[in-house]
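During the reporting period the student researcher (J.K.) took over the structure-prediction task from the postdoctoral fellow and processed the backlog of single-chain submissions. One of the processed entries is reproduced below for the supervisory committee.
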Amino acid sequence: MRFTPISRLICRLPRPGSCGHLQSRAFQPDVVPRDSKAKPIKYKIPQFYDPYGPRPPPSEKIIQLAERIGALSEEERGQIMPTLAERLKLPKLQPISTEGMEMGSEGGAAGPKVEEKKAEKTAFDVKLEKFDAAAKIKVIKEVRAFTNLGLKEAKDLVEKVPVVLKQGVTKEEANDMIEKIKAAGGVAVME
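J.K. obtained the following structure tokens:
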């Protein structure tokens, strides 16, 4: 590594008077000299930011319409939006599914509905709960048989107990898998 004397580095630095035309501001025509004694310009700052800018006041027709709507009963006001949507041909709103969402205090009322859905369920998941350490190899072989996984993937899957082995199978297939895993020394459940 070479050390250069500091005096050589200082000589290479640009001098204030020898700046190129890009750094010099003395001769630029777009720079307007400012009066140093002039007061700064004060701008009107609004109380809150409105991205759409100032809005014109509502017309007399809109004010009368708002007063007439305010004079209607609760039931009549509830009919305004469907009528306007039909008249203006607005697209109908699609209902949002709340299936699987907890409803808090209504949890007791939602309980029977969940039981009914389980009764009519056609696709099941098979979940491996636990297995005997001595029967680990047999369980891995059974898992490989019905999941089409390689040896390493099946071994990793079995070691992550409890784990879902297969999803979306029929009740008969799920019962068959559970019986095979039980015979191999594992415990599986249907969900």
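The committee noted the following: The chain has a mean pLDDT of 77.
J.K. will present the remaining backlog at the next meeting.
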